[in-house]
Design goal:
Length: 624
């Protein structure tokens, strides 16, 4: 089966599962259903083998198993998977949140921007309408007040007229579309800076909220809510851990609704919730630091602008416009922090639905009679108890593959990529999905460029005796509980694992084959396709369209006479003119004698004293 056919089969399976669940009144996203399909296939109890083509019975079996697992009403394991899918689909990094918000804002402003840049206003009424649209654009883009509030519109119009009077619309109309958009953005920043400065001076700022003050109140409140949820999840995790460790020794035995598997599923649920809460808390702390930094910059910029303007009636634009733009940029950052904080608060509130089931299944009235008899230890207490149990690196001198690191001898050890998200791999295997935090003071095991920490010295020694075996067993545990794949960060490990093999009743690992290879690409491996009648000019296309439209109204007529069928085609041949040349003149020349006259007797003569003039001109033949 090709890759395209396999993807088509999977999509059909997902579609049928969604329809089956919808018929039972349940709605699930395609992402959640796809994850559940993978989980069912990986589960060794279901005996699926993806190395062969699925038959129709296999597909029906797969659909039935997925629908059964998705339709369980009270399942902490399913809640954990839903929580993971929701968080993956709604949470991204800080910069991604801000970039996505700005893209949404640009898309919403696009119709207004296009209406302004494509305008061909000529009359006075059209120019006034265009100016009002520019004012609305400035308000919508800046977010400083509503464009339907008359007081806000008047203030924004006055600020815009001081920078861009209505008489400049003619120059604006002559610009290109890109230059118009660039000027609109610049005008928005300058007008926003002017309004913010007026608000600071107490002379305006209608409809502008005090974002720094709002953030300074909202951030501590949100932090308190996250911290309260975090402490509640940690307390539940400590109680569930104590119950799992002492479940066999509890007298009298817990009721059936407090089965060991459900408690383990609940522990995984609260540990995943705790992980996500820590991510949100770190983002909120970063948001608080960013707001504090922005507030300091905003205050200093305002003071600098006050010094520049003071009580002057006129200030050079080259001095104040850059400062207005800087203030507007800082205010935009405040708005970004508001959006980020709002998104984080929504994610926090939405995750509560995925922890509600285990709270209803194990209320305090049911847990406290059993928990009070046990020693409930926190993660910090467990680390303190085992901090003196250190691994001796000398015991592993003959195994160079195993390297032991310690916090005091390792620089930036807290930045090491610890496997299993800091949980003890030995406890996950031996105690069947028991998540105990590792203690780096015991020792950090470096094996095959991966780092592991353990809950005790005994767990570290037993894991180090055969790390590959324990890693494989952790993967088998994750196949049974697929929510552990994301919680323990096993994505890379599962990328090289095949599905469950019924022959050996254990998970098999695909061999990773590597080889040196090379390839060469032809210079022109695809024939060129040049469309001769292609036109990029819009006006040429319109001309052709008009011509084709005119042809629809034309008729082609023909007539035939009685003798036309007797005519035959004639052809004649002529001699083509040949090249000829003629000469119309001949070069020639003439020569004439040069006259020479000798005069004698001008100075007197001893002979007869008479003046004489003689012609001594030589003939042409004698000259040389």
């Amino acid at each position: 089966m090709s890759r395209a056919q396999a993807e088509s089969v999977i999509k059909n399976i997902i579609r049928e599962i969604i329809q089956e669940c919808a018929s039972k009144g349940l709605a699930f996203s395609e992402t959640l259903v796809a994850f559940m399909v993978k989980a069912v296939v990986l589960d060794p109890k279901n005996d699926f083998n993806v190395d062969r083509t699925l038959t129709k019975n296999d597909v029906q079996k797969l659909i039935r198993f997925c629908v059964e697992r998705l339709c369980v009403t009270r399942s902490p394991s399913l809640d954990t998977i839903k929580m993971q899918v929701y968080f993956d689909m709604n949470y991204t990094g800080r910069q991604e949140f801000i970039d996505e918000h700005r893209k949404v804002l640009e898309s919403r402003l696009y119709p207004v921007t296009r209406e302004i840049t494509d305008s061909r206003a000529r009359t006075r009424e059209e120019l006034e309408s265009l100016y009002r649209k520019i004012v609305s654009y400035v308000l919508l883009r800046s977010g400083l007040g509503s464009p339907t509030d008359l007081a806000v519109v008047r203030e924004a119009t006055a600020a815009l007229q001081s920078v861009f009077p209505q008489t400049e619309l003619g120059t604006f109309m002559s610009l290109s579309k890109r230059d118009k958009e660039r000027q609109l953005q610049e005008l928005t920043l300058i007008v926003s800076g002017i309004r913010l400065f007026n608000k600071e001076c107490g002379k305006g700022g209608e409809g502008i909220d005090n974002l720094p003050a709002i953030l300074n109140e909202a951030i501590p409140a949100t932090t308190q809510n996250v911290d309260a949820e975090l402490q509640a999840s940690r307390l539940a995790a400590f109680r569930y851990t104590a119950l799992i460790e002492n479940y066999k020794d509890i007298k009298p035995p817990p009721p059936a609704e407090m089965s060991l598997d459900i408690i383990k599923d609940s522990l995984i649920n609260v540990r995943q919730h705790e992980t996500f809460l820590r991510i949100l808390l770190n983002d909120i702390i970063g948001c608080a630091q960013q707001v504090e930094n922005l507030a300091n910059q905003f205050g200093s910029r305002m003071d600098q602008l006050q010094v520049t303007v003071q009580s002057k009636t006129a200030v050079p634009t080259a001095q104040v416009y850059p400062q207005f733009i800087t203030i507007a940029h800082l205010w935009t950052c405040f708005q970004d922090e508001m959006v980020l904080l709002s998104v984080l608060s929504n994610i926090l509130a939405s995750m509560d639905q995925f922890t509600r089931n285990h709270k209803e299944m194990f209320p305090d009235e049911l847990l406290l009679p059993y928990v009070d008899k046990l020693q409930v230890r926190s993660d910090e207490q467990r680390m303190k108890e085992t901090s003196q149990e250190r691994v001796n690196p000398d015991d592993f001198a003959d195994t160079p593959d195993l390297v032991w690191l310690f916090p005091e001898t390792t620089k930036n050890y807290e930045l090491l990529p610890i496997q299993y998200r800091g949980c003890c791999g030995y406890s996950i295997v031996t105690h069947d999905r028991l998540l105990l935090p590792g203690n780096p003071e015991v020792g950090i095991l470096q094996y095959k460029d991966k780092y592991y920490i353990f809950s005790s010295r005994d767990a570290a020694l037993k894991f180090a005796a055969d790390p590959d075996s324990y890693n494989a067993k952790v993967a088998e545990v994750a196949k049974i509980s697929p929510e552990l794949i994301q919680l323990l960060e096993l994505h890379q490990q599962f990328s090289t694992l095949s599905a469950y093999s019924p022959e050996d009743k254990k998970m098999s690992q695909k061999p990773m084959t590597k080889s040196d290879c090379g390839c060469q690409t032809d210079t022109h491996f695809q024939e060129t396709n040049i469309v001769k009648n292609y036109e990029w000019n819009e006006w040429e296309l319109r001309r052709k369209a008009i011509r084709l439209t005119n042809l629809r109204t034309k008729l082609t007529k023909a007539s035939q006479t009685h003798l036309s069928n007797l005519r035959r085609e004639n052809a004649s041949q002529v001699y083509l003119p040949k090249d000829q040349a003629i000469q119309t003149k001949v070069d020639g020349r003439t020569n004439v004698p040069k006259p020479q006259v000798f005069m004698a007797g001008l100075r007197g003569c001893r002979a007869n004293g008479q003046f004489a003039q003689m012609d001594v001109t030589a003939s042409v033949e004698d000259s040389y």
